[in-house]
């Protein structure tokens, strides 16, 4: 992977950190997100994430959900807001992203103790927890290539409950 694109999918992006704020109305609610350089789409929310959030299916009953590769956390935070009785995990390898996600959980979900942020590569932080999810949600880092994405897709079923769903957004031109 070249240096230009490695930053947001790296554990410790090599960037000078500047904090930004994004305000977005999603599913009829206004959210405030802190972002920093070195995190995917740090200046404004990307269109794919916006469209995905507006159309993702959220279980009506309390569930266990995962925002995989959460970035600064918009997908997982909306899941936590829309389904406050559910347990939501947000995972990202990028430590700057996890810092943002933690801050954004505090800002947008002040009293929700059911939303957890974990640092690690894909499922690594939860392997020992033996968790199964009702829903796994993702805006995958497609700059890593189709081969990596397909490898991930093939492992998803191991982490889903029998009636669980894997929902994701992709742009065709990004290699999927």
Automatic annotation (TrEMBL):
<keyword id="KW-0489">Methyltransferase</keyword>
<feature type="domain" description="Methyltransferase small">
    <location>
        <begin position="32"/>
        <end position="175"/>
    </location>
</feature>
<dbReference type="InterPro" id="IPR029063">
    <property type="entry name" value="SAM-dependent_MTases_sf"/>
</dbReference>
<dbReference type="InterPro" id="IPR007848">
    <property type="entry name" value="Small_mtfrase_dom"/>
</dbReference>
<dbReference type="GO" id="GO:0008757">
    <property type="term" value="F:S-adenosylmethionine-dependent methyltransferase activity"/>
</dbReference>
<dbReference type="Pfam" id="PF05175">
    <property type="entry name" value="MTS"/>
</dbReference>
<dbReference type="GO" id="GO:0032259">
    <property type="term" value="P:methylation"/>
</dbReference>
<keyword id="KW-0808">Transferase</keyword>
<protein>
    <recommendedName>
        <fullName>Methyltransferase small domain-containing protein</fullName>
    </recommendedName>
</protein>
<dbReference type="InterPro" id="IPR046977">
    <property type="entry name" value="RsmC/RlmG"/>
</dbReference>
């Amino acid at each position: 992977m070249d240096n230009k694109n490695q930053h947001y999918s790296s554990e410790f992006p090599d960037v000078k950190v500047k904090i930004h704020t994004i305000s977005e109305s999603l599913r009829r609610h206004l959210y405030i997100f802190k972002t920093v350089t070195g995190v995917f789409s740090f200046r404004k929310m990307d269109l794919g994430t916006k469209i995905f959030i507006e159309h993702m299916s959220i279980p009506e009953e309390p569930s266990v959900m995962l925002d995989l590769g959460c970035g600064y956390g918009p997908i997982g935070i909306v899941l936590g807001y829309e389904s406050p009785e559910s347990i939501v995990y947000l995972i990202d390898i990028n430590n700057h992203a996890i810092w943002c996600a933690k801050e954004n959980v505090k800002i947008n979900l002040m009293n929700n103790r059911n939303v957890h942020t974990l640092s690690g590569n894909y499922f690594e932080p939860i392997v020992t927890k033996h968790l199964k999810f009702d829903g796994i949600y993702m805006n995958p880092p497609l700059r890593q290539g189709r081969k990596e994405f397909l490898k991930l897709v093939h492992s998803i079923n191991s982490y889903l409950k029998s009636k669980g769903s894997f929902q994701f957004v992709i742009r065709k031109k990004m290699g999927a």
